[in-house]
Amino acid sequence: MQRGSPAKAPMAPLVREGAIHMTNTPRPADVWSTPLGSPTYPRYPIAFRDCSVLSLQYQTDPEAIRALLPTPLEATGDTVLINVGRWGDVPGIGSDMLECNVMIGARLTTRDASIAGAYSPFFFLDNDRAIALGREVQGQPKRLAKIGLEVRDDLHVGTVAVNGIEILTGTMVYKSAPAPPEAVRQRVDMRTNINFKVIPHIDGRMAVSQLVARDLEDIDVSECWTGPCTVDIRPHAGSPLHLLPVVRHLEGYYWRASFSLAGGVVLHDYLAEDLQGRT
User: CA-CA distance, 196 to 184, in Å (whole number)?
Assistant: First the structure.
């Protein structure tokens, strides 16, 4: 230190030992997601931007579909729709995420209305925040997997691997022919996603047992292409896509879009039904 220069005071620690760093701690009843200091996922609506989707379709055994639908849902056809998607930008969750949603057409008919949509018997992702959101809020049967979506020369290719085993390989010729966006929903209307939501209490009793539905909103499709597609499924004990066997390959679609994930509704409450049955 040069002569005559003032001595510098010691730097104060940035964080005091034992200090509480959170401010405006929310009431527990208002918490949407944990942990308190960094919620795992955001509230609705959730924006999805820069998205690419390979939609694969095939005909399966109608009995196989009925075996995977919880009552009182009814099948609306014999088509399986598999969306292998890349979500480029999802605030609060992540970027360049990959997922595979396996869907079958279903309808719930009540005294007041009939609601049709796409039921998800299987669902795979590579992002833990999205898995937590899907299972805890939407009731989707999401599982961790390694998913691929790419172009190999003149071919769109979507893959799903679990335990190092590739259980799904889907292909479609690269941008074979343009298609109207609404064509993607012609066989299985995926705009409304129906799921069987199950959450147990800590003591082993059931807390939630419901059929729920949520919609995609603000859908903006920038391009859509169609062409013949193929789906190859490999049997797997823990992720049994083979329970929906391929009978006949149908058309596929490749599309790019943005959309928003909105909140949903409870379609059917099994616990309330059970309680009414006991009274």
Answer: 24
What's the chain's average pLDDT? Answer: 92
Q: What is the pLDDT of residue 96?
A: 97
- Separation CA 120–CA 64 (nearest Å): 14
Q: For residue 183, give its domain range.
A: 42-194+219-260
Within a domain: residue 24? no
pLDDT at 177 over 80: yes
- Flag whether 68 is in a domain: yes
Of 142, 146, 175, 197, which one is the catalytic site residue? 142
The total of structural domains in the chain comes to 1
Amino acid identity, residue 172?
M
- Looking at per-residue pLDDT, the higher value among 194 and 5 belongs to 194
In a domain, 34, yes or no: no
> How far from 148 is each of 17, 125, 221, 222, 252, CA to CA, in Å?
46, 10, 22, 22, 17
pTM attached to this predicted model: 0.89
Q: Are 120 and 193 in contact (CB under 8 A)?
A: yes
**Would you call 175 a catalytic residue per the annotation?**
no
The answer as to whether 199 is a domain residue is no
Residues 150-168: tens digit of each pLDDT: 999 999 999 999 999 999 9
